[in-house]
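LAB NOTEBOOK - FOLDING QUEUE
OPERATOR: T.R.
BATCH SIZE: 2
PURPOSE: Compare the predicted structure-token outputs for two unrelated chains run back to back under identical settings.
PRIORITY: normal
REVIEWER: second-year student, initials M.K.

ITEM 1
FIELD SEQUENCE / FIELD STRUCTURE:
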Amino acid sequence: MIQSEDNMPPVTSLQQQEQLAYHYKCILELLGEDVNREGLVKTPERVAKAMQFLVQGYTQSPEEIISSAMFREYYRQMVIVKDIDFYSLCEHHMLPFYGKAHVAYIPNKYITGLSKIARIVDVFARRLQIQERMTMQIKDCLQKTLDPLGVMVVIEAQHMCMQMRGVEKRHSVTTTSDFTGVFRDLKTREEFISLIKNQK
């Protein structure tokens, strides 16, 4: 079920898909296309399904994902999951941006399953996003749920809104970072950066 406005019944996934398809059909017509030609007859439905997949993060709870695999463990060294591929949609133009996320935390009392870190990256990526906010959301989720000694997140991404339109800089890469706790110490941050840049 999809959350709806106050006092309104929830919208089912199928109802949402039908409404999206209707509006995408209207968009194609406004662009001057013949929506009845063979190649476009099913396009509104296909785009609606694609959009539901690409923004499914709205219906998922990253905190629940982390909480489902928390283990008490006395380990106080850096845990890093790097090179996490992600794909997202820029909220300004609804064009893709994609790249890699690198996430580290230093446990206090709890660790989490490594795959859960990759999953929360996906949850936040599968929403209309900006890279800066996504970086902070991943950091905040881990800090709030695990209460570690510190968290650091670095995201490197290419933005199609810069590559396909506007300035059209095809090879530009945007890097964002955010951190908490012990990562405020320069040496700790440098250790993390050194480890994620240490390619085989």
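ITEM 2
FIELD SEQUENCE / FIELD STRUCTURE:
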Amino acid sequence: MISLTLPQIARVTGGRVHPDTTAALDLAVTRSVVTDSRAVEPGSLYVARRGEHADGHDYLGSAAAHGAVAALTNRDSDLLPCVVVQEDPTRLSPRPDRPPYDAVTRAFGAIAREVLDRCVADGGLRVVGITGSSGKTSTKDLMAHVLSGLGPTLAPEASYNSEVGVPLTVCRLTPETAYLVVEMGASGKGHIEHLTGIAPPQVSVVLNVGTAHLGEFGSREAIAEAKAEIVRALPAHGLAVLNADDAVVAAMAAQARAVGARITLVGLSAAADVRAADVLIDAAGRASFTLHAPEAPADGIRVGLQLVGEHHVGNALAVAAVAHEWGMPWPDISTALGDATPQSRWRMEVTDRADGVTVINDAYNANPDSMRAALKALAAMRREGGHTVAVVGGMLELGETSAAQHLLVGQEAAVLGIDHLVTVGDLAEPAATAYLEHGGAEATSLTDRYQARDFLTARLTRHDVVLLKSSRDVGLRFLGDDLAGIDPAPAAVDKEVDA
């Protein structure tokens, strides 16, 4: 954390220090900035943000007890010194031109921007922003691993990619940090624009535009327009790394040119500047490929990934393009990509049980694109003498397309030859119907993850490979932990706020 005094925080947020005493005015935040009072340590700033279920102001006493030096609030408190920011009622009603974030949330972003600006000015910090409908977190982890070979690198914990998660990450910067990886998510227009205002990228990566959050955006075109905010935020001579295999993403090159940014296309397409060829998937579901790029050896350079799933090829190409932009030689990039191992829980997390059953837990989130990728990985991991079992729960936030998209999941499972499709919950049940209609072998529909646990515990046998895939709130990631024999407690708290 970059040390900031309370008057400095008041200046950048437009707030005021309470109480207005010499003692309070002399205070400085020297440790973490947090939105969860349980994460407070002596010297922390506690951000009392209102969440969906509670008000962070209710936890000011807890923050004080844990050693917070001050809090960011929207009202005075005598529990500990505060920087108080004034609420603007016009920002709390929905508007088409900007997200309706409350005053504390916007002030939190301003603090993070001040921290970032100081690091850029003092040490030439480099910032890469990553967005896409799927694959952001895995790519963020891979990016952080590779860039760490160039210098000290900071990346978000878990999937901290929101108006809360991004400033939480940025406020962890230190004077030594050379590279900042920022994952940027969106569920509406203006969300990524807000995030790029906190952490302006010099390089922007757009992985794909699918149908995640379709119920909130209304159309794929609207999703693309929102994702393109990360491209429009680039400075002149910045770099847009775009997926050549996604026509909607590749078309963002025009917006990059409009702001004077350069463009690198990545993918399998012949049009890609950084391209993968000769992709192979081994029995463990891991991809290898030949990387072709400017200044790489004429016959390319072979890359072997430890990550499970063919979809990681595109992620790896995006990472390679960024690392090369910042000076890493292609052979070193190949080595670093091959050294990377999974870092975030519940993303293609593979456990080989002692009884010979393999569990693939990929149930942190789900949308049609990531569901297809996971099913393809499951099919590739079939073991001789065993069965492939796909356990799928609902994909949320798909709006009116939800039923049709779940039907397509079942169809895809049948086409891929998955041996047994298990659906959990009413939302996913149409997938079982479509699976059987398209020639699937066996389908079972269950009501919840507890019923699924009992069913699978009795059913799975040696050499079976079972995939768990659903949106996070369905909870199949915890079923995956049950089946794998993993205690989820250390990683189960993925909240960003008390509320």
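REVIEWER COMMENT (ITEM 2): Confidence is low (pLDDT under 50) at residues 490-496.
FOLLOW-UP: none requested
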